[in-house]
Amino acid sequence: GDSVTQTEGLVTVTEGLPVKLNCTYQTTYLTIAFFWYVQYLNEAPQVLLKSSTDNKRTEHQGFHATLHKSSSSFHLQKSSAQLSDSALYYCALMDSNYQLIWGSGTKLIIKP
Amino acid sequence: NAGVIQTPRHKVTGKGQEATLWCEPISGHSAVFWYRQTIVQGLEFLTYFRNQAPIDDSGMPKERFSAQMPNQSHSTLKIQSTQPQDSAVYLCASSLGDRGREQYFGPGTRLTVL
User: Fold this and answer.
1) Do B91 and A99 count as a contact with CB atoms less than 8 A apart?
2) Mind giving me the DSSP string for B22-67?
3) What span, in angstroms and rounded, lies between the C-alpha atoms of B89 and B35?
4) Gap between the Cα atoms of A35 and A22, Å rounded
């Protein structure tokens, strides 16, 4: 079946430095949508980025991700971290039943 | 647009009692999802309705959990004989149901079983 892997459970970055959260996947389907969700403390997850196009960069709120089907990856990056970026980040893919297959999440802590 | 509404926001039950959680999806959304979130397990899929019909309940603990969607405006998650390990935040999400459409989450219900 489909699966999403987020290798880092916790990532700590100093404010102003770049951020990269890893996401790889396994899927049996050819046409898939991919998401990054962000969950701030005591809030519900909300969509941050979405993509279904291979090799196309998607950007929102300073974050960007590019779907690379050749390497089965959809890493999340930001060039300069802000304290307000501290949150839990989930990578997910949508299967043919419109269900999201979720990664285990990466907690991002931005320190001053 | 009020977003996904979940009630109650917090619920405390004693061990063995029943808990019913309510979800009102965004108007016009045809798909409703229930998840459970804990620090240890993270986000766990429970069940999914499309056009009120149950599509996938593979994440539901079979014995004490049940979910229904009697009409397009609300869904319920019922937990019978609650146990301390049921303590979690239960999240409801809705989507337009088309391929590639993101899910919009409600604020969640924090269930505490004493």
Assistant:
1) no
2) EEEPPTT--EEEEEEEETTTEEEEEEEEETTEEEE-TTS-TTTEEE
3) 8
4) 13
Q: How far apart are CA A54 and CA A44, in angstroms?
A: 28
Pick the CATH number of B11-113 from 3.10.180.10, 2.170.150.20, 3.30.499.10, 2.60.40.10: 2.60.40.10
Tell the residue number behind the tokens 């019978």, with chain if given: B80
* pLDDT tens for each residue of A68-97: 999 999 999 999 999 999 999 999 998 877
The pLDDT tens digits for A34-47 are 999 999 998 999 99
Whether A35 has its CB under 8 Å from any CB of chain B: the answer is yes
Q: What are phi and psi of A85, to 5 degrees?
A: -80, -10
Name the domain count of chain A.
Answer: 1
Q: What is the CATH number of the domain that holds A26?
A: 2.60.40.10
Peptide bond into B61 cis (omega under 30): no
Assigned token pair, B46 = 């429970």
Residues in chain B: 114
Contact (CB<8Å) A33/B100: yes
Residue A77's contacts (CB-CB under 8 Å, 6 or more residues apart) are A18, A19, A20, A21, A63, A64, A65
| Residue A61 lies in domain | 3-111
Cross-chain residue pair A102–B42, CB shorter than 8 Å: yes
Place of tokens 């700590």: A12
